[in-house]
Amino acid sequence: MKIKIGDYPYRLTCNIHRNYMTNKYGYVDWPTEYSQFETALEWVDDRVQSFYNIFNWLWFDRRKQKVSVRIDPWDTWSMDHTLAHIVVPMLVQLKETKHGAPYVDPEDVPAELQPKKLTKKQKDNGETDSTHFERWDWVLDEMIFAFDSKQHDNWEEQFYSGEHDVYFEDTGNGFSEMKRGPKDTFKVDWEGRKAYQERMSNGFRLFGKYYEALWD
């Protein structure tokens, strides 16, 4: 497999007015009426952007993102395993660089992360509850856990203990039966293995459910 995906196409933009207003008032508290200087700055911004748009039309708006993907035959022998190597580092980076969080259904997270009731003022201001972002972090962690586990074919070994001591006893008619010897102490934690597998499966389920929310 060989994948090469270029940067998204960009265009020239003038942010003189926006940067000034953001630094002065923040992202959401801009005044409804601008001062004389702010109005003049907006006029300059518009003129510069009009000049930029000429170059955007001639070049930047015509560019497309470069994507090159080559799939080798062995990449699909265990496609679930192959994709895990790609998905894990992408999920890790997304969690580290994200700037927000989507709505997560309460049914998908533990009880301690259930939404807290908002006051009327908080609702009117468009605020989120106190665990809104924690819920998304939890979901991402479960996705990462699932795909990281898929990378390792030996994850089940953590639920094995003891040593094998087996022998085969002839049962007649050319058949034999495997039996445990006196020194056989091998055990499997079936409950632990089942819980681990269920957590993996839930992580894959969450990945599918929130696939369209995987953006920064």
Overview of the molecule:
There is one protein chain. This protein is an alpha+beta fold. The protein has two domains: 1-70, no CATH class; 78-216, no CATH class. It has helices spanning 16-25, 36-58, 79-97, 120-124, 132-150, 190-209, and strands spanning 2-5, 67-70, 160-161, 166-172, 175-180, 187-188. It has a two-stranded antiparallel ribbon. The chain has a two-stranded antiparallel ribbon with strand order 3-6. A two-stranded antiparallel ribbon has the order 4-5. A hairpin with a 2-residue loop joins strand 4 (166-172) and strand 5. Helix 1 packs across helix 2, helix 3 runs antiparallel to helix 5 (132-150) and helix 5 packs across helix 6 (190-209). The longest helix has 23 residues, at 36-58. The radius of gyration is 28 Å and the shape is elongated. The two termini are 26 Å apart.
Task: Summarize it.
With 216 residues, the chain is of the alpha+beta class. Helix content is 44%, strand content 12%.
Sheet with the most strands, sense and barrel status: 2 strands, antiparallel
> Which value, in Å, is the CA radius of gyration?
28 Å
The percentage of residues in β strands lies in 5-15%
Which stretches are poorly predicted, pLDDT < 50 over at least 5 residues? Answer: none
Shape: elongated
> How many structural domains does the protein architecture include?
2
Strand order of the largest sheet: 1-2
Order of helices and strands: EHHEHHHEEEEH
Got a strand count?
A: 6
By DSSP (H or I, 4+ residues per run), the number of helices equals 6
Structural class: alpha+beta
Mean pLDDT: 91
Distance between the termini: 26 Å
Secondary structure: helix percent: 40-55%
